[in-house]
Design a protein that fits this description.
By secondary structure, this protein is an alpha/beta fold. 33% of the residues lie in helices and 23% in strands.
Length: 338
C-alpha cells in the first residue's frame, strides 16, 4: 500500500476542534487562534503556513499545553490526542505525554537548550522523565541519539555544551531530544529558521528520514512554501488566527483558491523566470488588537475584495472533496469570474 495514501482511511491521531486561544492585553481578551479545527492522521506530515503573526506557533503551544501562564489561555475547543482529550488532563498527566507521545522542536535552539548543562545531561533528562533507565544506559542512549541525527564524534559531544556547537548542530541536538522517546507526533516549529540554505536542506532531509523510520506524524510549521512542497502531504494556510485554506500539497500548488494563498505562491522566486522586482503582498498581518470583528480578516490586503467582504465573515467550507476554503468568492459568485 502507498504510505502516502494509507493514512487517509485511518482514524486521526490528533483532532483539534474549534480551538480558541486568547491573550489578555490591557484587561481585554483577544483570540490569537480563533475557531481552528483540523485532524492529523498517523504517519501524516501536515504543513502549516502563513506569515509571522498568523497564529501558527500559538496553535502549536496550545496543543503542547505550553502557553505562557498568566497571559495566554485556552478559551474554548478540544484537543484530542490518541482518543484522549488533553483539556481534561491534570498537569502531571500532561507531563507524562509531553516529550514521550507528543514532542516539539522549537524555533531557536540556542534559547531552548540550557547553556550551563552539557548536551548529554539535557538528553538524559528527557529519558529519565519517561523511562526507567540507569545512568549508564541513558548515556549510551544519548550517544546513539546524537549519532542518529548526524553529529560526528557523539561520544565526545555528549559532554560538550551548546555554545560549542554551530546553529545546525544545535538544531540536530534539539531533534535528538524531541525523538528520544520515539513520539507518535512531532511538532516542528520553523525548524530551519536562521540556518543557511545547505544546513536547512540537511535538517529537512534528517526530519524526513526520522519520520519515515519511526512512522511519526509531523506538524511542520513554516513560512517557506518550498519546505512544504518538499516535506508535506497536506497543507493548512493560516491568516490572522484562522484557517483560510486546507488541501493536499499538489492541489495547493496547482489549484490554490484563496487570494492569500495565491499571493504567497506568487511571491516565490522562480528560477525559470526573470523579473526586476519580486512579488510582495501589500500591507501587514493585523495585530491582535486590530483584527476586525466582522468581515474577512484579509480584506484590506486582498486584490479581489468585494464590498460584502467588509461585513460578512467567510466560513471554511469544502469547495470540492479534499479542498476547503474560507472566502466569499466561493459563496457569492463563480470564482472563475474573479
Amino acid at each position: 500500500m502507498n504510505r502516502k495514501k494509507s493514512f487517509l482511511t485511518e482514524p486521526p491521531l490528533l483532532e483539534v476542534k474549534n480551538l480558541e486561544t486568547a491573550f489578555e492585553i490591557d484587561g481585554v481578551e483577544y483570540n490569537a487562534v480563533d475557531q481552528v479545527s483540523f485532524k492529523v492522521k498517523p504517519r501524516q506530515i501536515l504543513g502549516v503556513v502563513g506569515e509571522s503573526g498568523c497564529g501558527k506557533s500559538v496553535m502549536s503551544l496550545s496543543i503542547m499545553q505550553l502557553l505562557p501562564k498568566g497571559s495566554g489561555k485556552l478559551k474554548a475547543g478540544e484537543i484530542i490526542f490518541d482518543g484522549i482529550n488533553l483539556e481534561t488532563m491534570t498537569e502531571s498527566q500532561i507531563n507524562k505525554i509531553r516529550g514521550r507521545d507528543i514532542s516539539m522542536i522549537f524555533q531557536e535552539p540556542m534559547t531552548s537548550l540550557n547553556p550551563v548543562f552539557t548536551i548529554g545531561y539535557q538528553l538524559q533528562e528527557v529519558l529519565f522523565n519517561h523511562w526507567k533507565i540507569t545512568k549508564r544506559e541513558a548515556r549510551q542512549k544519548s550517544i546513539a541519539l546524537l549519532k542518529s541525527v548526524g553529529i560526528s564524534r557523539p561520544d565526545k559531544m555528549v559532554d560538550g555544551y551548546p555554545h560549542q556547537l554551530s546553529g545546525g548542530m544545535r538544531q540536530r541536538v534539539m531533534i535528538a531530544m524531541a525523538i528520544a522517546c520515539q513520539p507518535k507526533l512531532l511538532i516542528a516549529d520553523e525548524p530551519t529558521t536562521a540556518l543557511d540554505v545547505t544546513v536547512q536542506a540537511q535538517i529537512l532531509e534528517l526530519l524526513k528520514e526520522i519520520q519515515s523510520v519511526n512512522d511519526m506524524s509531523v506538524i511542520l510549521i513554516t513560512h517557506d512554501l518550498g519546505v512544504v512542497a518538499e516535506m508535506c502531504n497536506e497543507v493548512m494556510v493560516m491568516y490572522a488566527g484562522k484557517i483560510v485554506e486546507r488541501t493536499d500539497v499538489d492541489r495547493l500548488f496547482h489549484h490554490a483558491k484563496h487570494p492569500y494563498t495565491t499571493l504567497l505562491l506568487g511571491a516565490i522566486p522562480k528560477m525559470d523566470e526573470s523579473c526586476e522586482r519580486l512579488s510582495t503582498i501589500q500591507g501587514i498581518v493585523p495585530s491582535l488588537t486590530n483584527i476586525p470583528k466582522n468581515g474577512c480578516r484579509f480584506v484590506q490586503r486582498c486584490p479581489k475584495a468585494m464590498p460584502e467582504c467588509l461585513t460578512t465573515t467567510p466560513i471554511l467550507k469544502s469547495i470540492e472533496q479534499g479542498h476547503e476554503v474560507a472566502c466569499l468568492l466561493y459563496e457569492t459568485r463563480n470564482p472563475e469570474e474573479g
